[in-house]
DNA sequence: CGTGTAAGGAATTCTGACACG
DNA sequence: CGTGTAAGGAATTCTGACACG
């Protein structure tokens, strides 16, 4: 009954619908992918598929760009956050398993 | 932050992806719509869009058909359930507002 | 840099019908 | 009854490029 990955993360939405949901043009959405801010999946035929989480992320990206932030800055910010999360996780794992050093 | 209608109910999935998610053929999915068991939305262009809830419902329908149930029986069953729900709701409203006859 | 657009092609979807049963 | 399929057309999406700036 409970889906393996939440509906929110399942990549099932076409770029057309994603465009409607976000208010962004398809051009913008594809460009943000080019700048490595978003990572849709593809059908066998090559059509892009987005998740609801992607839709949310796109809206956030759009807001930051409106605020004058550039794509590379947004990307850098994301990488930094991911690194912090990774370090914290590593620390917790080390503590839990007493494997430090 | 909280979406008006849950992700589960938003109709955003194409018939191709729905077919993959359910394991049903597009023909089957369209037929169940013809028999009024499922109600996708449409894009301006006429392309069908399904929700995750629709996907779940489709799997249930498929199971019942596998068990030998016919589409009209499944539909009758759904209508009966809806009627029961409607009666219970009406009763609660009447009790709450003291408007019973 | 971020985005619009025209271009040509390919993938996707649509409907109505015939087929089997 | 439920489903497969071929048919022709329309809607959707894709990529690479030119444009503006």
Automatic annotation (TrEMBL), chains A, B:
List the Gene Ontology MF annotations in alphabetical order: DNA binding; DNA-binding transcription factor activity
Q: Which residues form the signal peptide?
A: none
A Pfam family this chain is assigned to: MerR_1
Which UniProt keywords are given for this protein, alphabetically ordered?
Answer: DNA-binding, Repressor, Transcription, Transcription regulation
User: Cross-referenced SUPFAM superfamilies, in alphabetical order?
Assistant: Putative DNA-binding domain (SSF46955)
Transmembrane helix recorded as keyword: no
- Superkingdom, taxonomy of origin: Bacteria
Give the HTH merR-type domain ranges.
12-76
Q: Does the keyword DNA-binding apply?
A: yes
Q: Which PANTHER family match?
A: HTH-TYPE TRANSCRIPTIONAL REGULATOR TNRA (PTHR30204:SF65), REDOX-CYCLING DRUG-SENSING TRANSCRIPTIONAL ACTIVATOR SOXR (PTHR30204)
Name by which UniProt lists this protein: MerR HTH family regulatory protein
């Amino acid at each position: 009954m409970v889906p393996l990955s939440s509906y929110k993360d399942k990549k099932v939405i076409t770029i057309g619908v994603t465009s409607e949901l976000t208010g962004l043009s398809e051009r913008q959405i594809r460009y943000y992918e080019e700048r490595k801010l978003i990572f849709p999946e593809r059908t066998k035929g090559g059509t892009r598929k987005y998740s609801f989480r992607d839709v949310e992320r796109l809206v956030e990206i759009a807001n930051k760009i409106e605020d004058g932030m550039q794509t590379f800055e947004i990307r850098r910010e994301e990488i930094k956050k991911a690194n912090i999360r990774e370090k914290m996780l590593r620390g917790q794992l080390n503590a839990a398993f007493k494997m430090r050093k």
